[in-house]
Amino acid sequence: xxxxALPALADVPANSVRAEAAPARRRRPLAYLQAAxxxxxxxxxxxxxxxxxxxxxxxxxxxxxxxPAFTLQNYRDVFEGCGNLxxxxxxxxxxxxxxxxCALTLAFTLLIGFPVAYFLAFHVRSRTVQMGLFLLCTxxxxxxNVIRMISWIPLLGRNGxxxxxxxxxxxxxxxxxxxxxxxxSVTLAxxxxxxxxxxxxxxxxxxxxxxxxxxxxxxxGATGWQTLWSxxxxxxxxxxxxxxxxxxxxxxxxxxTVGVMGGQQIASVGKVIQVQMSYLQFPAAAANAxxxxxxxxxxxxxxxxxxxxxxxx
Amino acid sequence: xxNGIRFTRRTLLQGAGTALAAGPITGFPAVHxxxxxxxxxxxxxxxxxxxxxxxxKEDLGITIEYIPVVTDEVTKRAVTQPNSFxxxxxxxxxxxxxxxxxxxxxxxxxxxxxxxxxxxIFTKGEIAGKAxxxxxxxxxxxxxxEGQTGKTFASSPTEWITLIPTTYNADTLGIRPDLIKRxxxxxxxxxxxxxxxxxxILNIPSIGIMDAxxxxxxxxDYTYADKGNMTKAExxxxxxxxxxxxxxxxxxxxxxxxxESVNLMASGETVIxxxxxxxxxxxxxxxxxCTYQPLKEGYRAWATGFGLPKTxxxxxxxxxxxxxxxxxxxxxxxxxxxxxxYSAVPETAKTQMEPYExxxxxxxxxxxxxIHGPDGGLLEKAGATRDGGSxxxxxxxxxxxxxxxxxxxxxxxxxxxxxxA
Lengths: 313, 421
What we know:
The structure holds two protein chains of two kinds. By secondary structure, chain A is an all-alpha fold. Chain A contains 15 helices and two strands. In chain B, helix 10 (258-266) packs across helix 11 (277-285). The longest helix of chain B has 25 residues, at 2-26. Chain B has helices spanning 2-26, 30-34, 50-60, 71-80, 95-101, 120-123, 177-180, 205-218, 232-247, 258-266, 277-285, 314-328, 331-337, 346-351, 355-361, 391-396, 408-420, and strands at residues 38-43, 63-68, 87-91, 104-105, 107-108, 126-127, 130-131, 160-161, 164-175, 199-202, 251-255, 272-275, 291-293, 299-309, 342-343, 371-372, 378-380, 398-401. The A-B interface holds A 63-65, 77, 80, 90, 93-94, 97, 153-154, 157-159, 177, 180-181, 259, 262-267, 271-272, 275-281, 284 and B 70, 72-73, 75-76, 79-80, 96-98, 100-101, 197, 203, 205-206, 246, 251-256, 263, 267-269, 404, 408-409, 412-413, 415-417, 419-421.
């Protein structure tokens, strides 16, 4: 995200300080020096490991060692049988399943996140109450991801609280099996875990909206919906985009939630990578990681095409 | 990285050498001798009991520092970070990966006091003179090395042992007799549509596929030359069956860790599933009926053992041998037997158990008194008998062993296909 923001910041001094070219030139090495620590951190902890992953993805391996070489076999294995559209290959199935969860999670987190943020930003007048309620949203984050996820299991199980209650009330005759270890339970857990990542950036965008714009819209005769749709939503686009990026990347890389809530029966890219790592098939895992990275980058690239984050921020 | 560590180690050793040489001059040699030894013990949490560490500290003065990780991680550490432990407790099937890496040292059988008393299950693949199933990575196939630093297994006994056995057992299906309400006698029941949506298999590819193979053979559909070393065609056939069952909704969930299997069974989500013996015990201690059901096709067995990293030298090496000798001398064996596992040298363990305990755990007789676990908790009331019967009946009925296949890479890929189906 920071590499998106950096150029925008760099533009400002370049335009306004052009008149004093000499001091600017003198200051440039200093600027580089100031940026150096962050750049170094990125280089050591992001760029180099990524390059290593890319390199290893072309290596050969056997049961106990990885062998420096250049082979495309790992990628061939990833895409084996993917030409057949009638019966999709493992990779295609896995990505389709993951994309399905992305879409579902995105839809629900947005549907829940936007109204919550709207309420916080426009309906709560007092700053203190606003911040208090905002902090309330983050309270679930004080416990671990896994615990929040597992706590659904006694609720949704075959003999769980929900089924028992419904049966007790006579609403259903036999337990609903699909509550747990199904697409439903996975989506539910994702929405539960990640809605806050949607609320925060949208709330942030809304808080910056100049209130006089809304007054102007009313004065011009716009209805509440028109104001929402034509003024607030467009101005919230960056927040929605950032929230979408959060949710997308979290869901794409997840394998714990899918594993626990899906009863290990639902495939995820992360799980494939984890299995390969535990069987010492590092090059195969690296190839899968590179493909995943490419897929996520493409999705984010597509998103930035729709919304120009650089301009909006 | 390895080079870096070796360099540091060498420097340290040189430093230590200088210190020792300087010792007599400065007059403080005793300080080194009195320094207590700590052994870093890499293995799975199941085998790492605090009681054993306390007892060995008491008896030998050796401090055991446990490094608990999951089965696959033990192998991974042994292959990628051989300097990070002093003693490894790993499954015999992992040896097919670890030994070729050259990271473990053959154990000198002459330094193991009870080496000739280790049960013939390991040395010859037989029990009470009767051969047992040896499909898969049976311990006898990987028990001896050609040389101390050899990378190949010896087909006949040598003085270099790869792993000194710690625990082993015979695995089968766990069932809920109260919910099934009829006798279960065959592996094929796992995929019986009667249990649609109430069955489970474990999601550890190398073990899960063996359970699936037991099912395939039980249906009479196909007989494998070696369930633990399938051909690509055999892997395809097995996975195809699993995929069909999965799409038909046979499985409620898959499990990967011990506690998941306990929860599935105890909550009634599943009524029949692959299971491990202590998990069955845990379900029972929650007051839920659960049977570790012996099946006519036999058991899938596993075994773990102690190995030494090749970097181990000097006092730590001596301490490791002392610890292994202590482990085989009885107390630890009795402790493991009381957990429902088996120990490497049954005769020494017997000396540390009460006769009624021995009769219940090892001879398959009904319990004269209440049976307590090593922690003192009540496991079974008087009159109960062990599922599957005696040591000889259970281990004698082993059909195959946990394994690493030659086509392991292909198998893992097909397993991922099964999960994605």
